[in-house]
Amino acid sequence: MPGSVRPEEILPDGDDHTVLDGLTVRKGTVAAFVANVKALDGVEEGSAEWKMLADRIRELVPGVRAVGLFDVLTPKSPQLRNIIDEASTHGGTAAP
């Protein structure tokens, strides 16, 4: 079993991305995902702002999945789970 991991072991100082499972993941991907999910809460579903936030979340899903976030955390919102499922179905792009 591996020991503990420090942030700089994942992404050394000066690097702004890493490659996980063949996918380039930028520094800040998880933080951007969380910020957009928080912003989505309280926005009227179907509004232009909601659609923009949902699209951004879908774009971030592949990177967040590569980091392994969904291996240790499960989204509690059915709305968010639907957005994540759509991203998985459509390869991280906005749903048609």
Automatic annotation (TrEMBL):
Domain of life (superkingdom): Bacteria
Protein name: Uncharacterized protein
